[in-house]
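Quiz preparation item.
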């Protein structure tokens, strides 16, 4: 008998105030910046200041988001910690590489290098929680988080673990951001207001953040939703997406009409907007459509923020006006489909139910 996978706790640190709040009631859409900055929690409540000073942004956000998720789920410890990240602790990577150039490859301190690896976040969380179990980090582009989620789901189903902490973490680094602007990944400066829907310009509005989830094999008071299925595909043509969605739903004995809301990864990049708008105008024309990257920005693990939002909607049955793409409403939101891709690659489909 395969076990089911439940989201029993969530924690989210993002470019919105997503801690000490009920949901997104304090969210604001910033249309004047093409790179959104994190809204920082009081780190000293979670991390000793002496340790905090030496930690990268992503590590601190990861530790706090993980602590929030664990507290939310009411668990003392977990059997495994699995994270996904696209760029890891990019700020420390930049510091180390800059130091190599500035110091002519001499007298280098290893600190930035040690803290620049992608698995620093999962390791620091394990140290904080004294968790000696399975600890793994997926670095897999825009499906880094989904890879972690799938790993956790498979372990829970096969009874290898009872509770797993899963998260997606990324941070912005100044130099990398500048490069992304040069190669067109981020929208050009001085083109505001940056609207993500019906955008006519290429590139995305970038962000950063850490979203963590406690996945367990049993339903509790704190349960948000059940993770039904996850599928990832590296390349799809625009005209293949709809058929893929239909077969993905069919594998779960569902049809388009069974989906109460679809969460799409609109990020304002006109070059790849068709992937979402095609679905929105055709297959899901009569479905509640939601989006989230105008709140959290685009980054490799932005989809973790989308999952956080979807899980909250199923639990609270409240759809914040700020997240709506169309005006279709439902009396109940019990089944939600998430679809994400980045620059035409790394497509992911995630299915949640009440």
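Solution:
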């Amino acid at each position: 008998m395969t076990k089911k996978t439940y989201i029993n706790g969530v924690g989210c640190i993002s470019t919105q105030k997503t801690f000490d709040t009920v949901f997104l009631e304090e969210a604001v859409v910033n249309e004047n910046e093409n790179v959104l900055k994190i809204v920082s929690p009081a780190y000293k409540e979670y991390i000793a200041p002496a340790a905090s000073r030496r930690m990268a942004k992503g590590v601190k956000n990861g530790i706090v988001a993980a602590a929030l998720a664990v507290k939310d789920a009411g668990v003392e410890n977990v059997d495994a910690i699995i994270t996904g990240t696209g760029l890891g602790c990019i700020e420390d990577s930049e510091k180390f590489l800059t130091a190599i150039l500035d110091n002519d490859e001499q007298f280098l301190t290893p600190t930035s290098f040690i803290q620049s690896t992608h698995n620093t976040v999962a390791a620091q969380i394990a140290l904080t929680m004294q968790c000696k179990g399975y600890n793994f980090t997926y670095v897999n582009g825009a499906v880094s988080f989904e890879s972690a989620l799938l790993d956790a789901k498979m372990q829970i189903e096969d009874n290898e673990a009872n509770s797993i902490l899963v998260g997606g973490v990324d941070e912005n680094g100044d130099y990398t951001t500048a490069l992304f602007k040069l190669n067109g990944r981020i929208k050009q400066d001085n083109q505001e207001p940056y609207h993500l829907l019906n955008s006519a310009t290429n590139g995305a509005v970038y962000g950063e953040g850490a979203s963590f989830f406690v996945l367990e094999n049993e339903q509790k008071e704190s349960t948000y939703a059940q993770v039904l299925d996850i599928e990832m595909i590296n390349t799809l043509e625009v005209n293949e997406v709809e058929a893929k969605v239909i077969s993905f739903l069919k594998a779960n004995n569902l049809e388009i009409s069974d989906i109460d809301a679809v969460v799409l990864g609109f990020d304002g990049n006109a070059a790849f907007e068709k992937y979402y708008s095609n679905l929105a105008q055709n297959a899901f024309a009569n479905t509640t459509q939601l989006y989230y990257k105008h709140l959290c920005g685009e980054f490799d693990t932005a989809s973790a923020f989308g999952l956080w939002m979807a899980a909250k909607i199923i639990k609270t049955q409240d759809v914040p006006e700020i997240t709506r793409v169309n005006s279709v409403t439902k009396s109940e939101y019990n089944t939600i489909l998430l679809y994400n891709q980045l620059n035409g690659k790394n497509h992911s489909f995630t299915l949640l139910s009440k």
